[in-house]
Amino acid sequence: MRLNLKPFFIHAALIALYLCSASAPAASFEYLYIEASEGNSSGGHSAIQFGDEIYHFQHHDSGLIRLLRQDKQEFHFLYRFLQNRRIHLSKIEVSEDTFNRLNEHFKLQFLAQDQQFKQLNDLHKDRVLLRRLLNQQSSGNAILDAEFYSVLRLNGAGLFYAGQELSGQKNDRYPRKLNDVRSQSSGIIEMLRKKIGQNYGQNYLAHRREQITSEIKTLKPSRWPATSSILLKDNFTPAINSFADRYEDYLTGLVAIKVLMEDRPLSPDAYFLTHEPVTPEEKTTLDRLRDQMSLNLLRSVDSARPDWGYAVLVNMARFVAVDLSLQLGQWVFIDDFAMDSEWVGADQFARFPEQMQTQIDDALANLVHTRKALLNLGGLTEANYSKLEMSANRYFELLKVKEHKAVRFIGEKALPTKSVNLPEDWLVPGLSRQQLMTALSELENYENQLFHELEERYRYNLLTRNCVTELFRTIDLALLQENESDESPLKQAELITQESIQRLGGNISAPYNFIPFVSFKSVQERYKVTASAVLNSYRGRQLENLYKKNNGLMTVLRESNIFTSTVYAYNPEDAFFVFFTDDNFIFRPIFGLFNTAAGIGQSVFGFFSWPFDAGKNLKSGATGVLMSLPELLFVNMRKGSYKYLSYKQFVNDEKSKY
Questions:
Q1: Residue 365 and residue 398: Cα distance in Å, rounded?
Q2: Domain boundary, last residue among 415, 437, 463
Q3: Domains: count for the chain
Q4: How many angstroms from the chain centroid is the CA of residue 545?
C-alpha cells in the first residue's frame, strides 16, 4: 500500500512556519538613559524611542512637566554631541500590537498636551487683550502695557512696515527717495494690485477692507464655558476659537490690503541681496515659479481661511524677492529668521574658529545642494523655495562671522514672521464695559480651572513626578484597556501589572524608579531586553580616534584637562573646571578636589564682579561647586559641552560608526 505523504509534509511545513513566525520578534522599541551632566536634566534623563521618533518629559517654566517629541537624529545630536553625554540604549522586544498600542498612546498624549498648552497660551492672550480694552475704556486712552505689545503681534506686517509706521499719523510717511530695489519692489506690488482689480473688480480691495472693518467692530469675545471638568476623557481640551487670534487675523488682513492699496515696498530689513548670480537654468525655473506664485496670490487674496492676511503678506514678499532676483540677475531672499532668534557675538565665535568654519562650509554645501536639487526636480514649487530660502538665510548670516559681526546662530523658519506691534490707532470691537468685564470673568474662571486640572496631572516634582516617573506612568496607561479605565485604582494597578508582565516581560513601578540610572537598571532586569548599547558622546568618540593613533601616557595627560586638551575648547557657558572625570574613575576624587577649588575661585571672583556681569560668574561658580562635589564620591556629572558642532558631521559620524 502506497502512502501519500504529501498532506503530512504540507501540514508539517505550515506548523513549522507558524512556530517560526510566532517566535520571531514582531517589533521593538528602545529605552534611553542619558547620563548626568551640567545643564538641563543634570541628574540624568530618560526617553523612549519608537522608530525615528523619541518621546521624553521635561520641566516647563509654568511648573508643569511636558511631553516632548523629537526626531531621533536631532535628539541624539543635542545630547550626545552638543551636551556631550553618553546614551545607554536598551532594545525591548514586543509584539506588533504592543508596539502600536504604546506608540499610538504616546502620540495621542503628546497631541493632547500640545493642545492643552496652546489653549493656556490662547487664554493668556485673550486676557491681555480684554484688560487692554477695559483699561482703554476706563481711562479714555491706552495705558502703556509692555505685555500687550509682546503678546499681541501682527505676523508678516514687519515685511512691509517697521515700528509704528502702521499708525495713522505715519501712514504716508514714505522716504522721498527710494533706492532702485525698493522702487522696483513698489512697482511689483502695484502690478499685483492691478491684477487683483482685473480679476475681482477695481473696488474689490476697498470693499473687503470695509467688510473686515465691520467684522472687527462686531467681534465678540470667546465663550469660555463653566464646566465641572474641562479635560475630556482623552485629555483633549474643547476646541474654542481665541478672541485674540481672530482679532489679530482681521488686523493682519487689513495690513495686507493696505500694502496692496498703497503699493508698499518691502521693508529694508525684510530682504537681503546675495550678489550670487542666477544661472540661466535657474532663471527659467524662477520664471515658472513667479507665474505660479502670481496665480496663488490671486486666490489667497480672496480666501476664506482665517489667516489669509498673513499668507498674503508672506507670499507677496516672496513674490517680490523672486521678481527682484530675475530683474537684478542676483539672488534676493526674504529674511526668515524669527524675532527671538539667538544672537551670538563675534567674540564668542572667535573662541571656536575651526567649528565656525565647519558651520559655514556645511551651510554653503547645503545651499549648493539645495539649488541643484530644486533644478533636478524639474520645477521650483513654493514649498521647495522655502527650503532654498532657509538654506540661503543660514549661509549668508553665518558669513557675517568673517566680518566680525554678531550673528543669529539659531532661528531660521520655514515661514518668515517679521511681526510688529499693533498700531496705536487700532480698530477695536464695539464692546461695552459690562461685556468686557463678563468675558474677562468667564475667561479667568475657565483659566484657573484648566490650570488646576493640569497641575493635578502634570505638576513637576523632583521625586514623585519627573522625566522618568512620567514615562512609566504613560506606559502603564497605554497598557490599560479602555474598558478598564473605570475600575478602582487597586484593580487598575493589578491589571497593569498583569499586562506589563505579559507584554513587556515585567512591571516597573514609577514611584520606586524616579532616578534615571535606577530606572535603566530596572529596565535591564525586568523588560524583554534583547540588545544593549552605549552610544558614545562627542568627546568620547574623539578620544577613541585619538588613542587609536597614539595611546601614550602623554596623550592621556594632555586630554585630561581643559588647558591642554585638543578635543575640547573651554565653553564659557560651562561652569569653570580643570579636569575631566567622566573617563577617569580612579583619580576622580582627586580631580574633583581641583574642580571644586576652581568653582569656589570663580564664585569668589563672581562676588566682586557682580555689579559688572549681573552675577553671571557667581552663578557659574556655584554651579561648578555643585557639579564637582559628587566627584569626591566617585560620581561624575559634568562632561563639558560643545555648542557649535556641525550637525552634518554628526550625521556622517553616525553613518560610519553604526
A1: 13
A2: 415
A3: 3
A4: 33
The one-letter amino acid code at 141 reads N
pLDDT band of residue 232 (cuts 50, 70, 90) is confident
Phi and psi torsions of 579, nearest 5°: -110, 145
Let me know if residue 120 belongs to a domain.
no
Strand partners, 68: 56
Sign of the CA dihedral with 642 first, then 647, 649, and 651 last: positive
SS3 75: helix
AA identity, residue 486: D
Q: What is the DSSP letter of 402?
A: G
**35: which residues sit within 8 A by CB, 6+ positions away?**
44, 85, 86, 87, 88, 582, 639
Q: Are residues 324 and 340 in the same domain?
A: no
Map grid coordinates 552663578 to a residue: 619
- Is residue 317 domain-shared with residue 354, that is, in the same domain? no
Tell me: the pLDDT tens digits for 394-426?
999 999 988 889 999 988 898 999 999 888 778
**Inside any domain, residue 230:** no
Mapped onto helix, strand or coil, the DSSP state of residue 606 is helix
- Are residues 372 and 322 located together in one domain of the fold? no
**Shared domain check, 393 and 315:** no
- Residue 529 neighbours by CB under 8 Å, 6+ apart: 90, 91, 92, 93, 523
Shared domain check, 598 and 571: yes
Beta bridge partners of 53: 50, 71
* Of 72-81, 344-353, 435-444, 454-463, minimum mean pLDDT range: 344-353
Q: Is residue 611 part of a domain?
A: yes
- Residue 381 within any structural domain of the chain: yes
Tell me, yes or no, whether 174 and 191 share the same domain: yes
First to last CA, the chain: 60
Sign of the torsion formed by the C-alpha atoms of 612, 613, 619 and 620: negative
DSSP 100-126: HHHHHHHHHHHHHHHHHHHHHHHHHHH
Q: How many residues belong to the chain? A: 658
Residue 468 CA to residue 58 CA, distance in Å, equals 10
Q: Are residues 287 and 316 in the same domain?
A: yes
Inter-CA distances, 475 with 31, 252, 455, 471, 552, Å: 12, 44, 20, 6, 48
Domain enclosing residue 326, as ranges = 153-211+246-269+277-330
pTM: 0.88
Helices (H), 408-566: 433-458, 469-479, 489-504, 516-526, 538-549, 553-558
**Among 461, 348, 433, which Cα is nearest to 139's?**
433
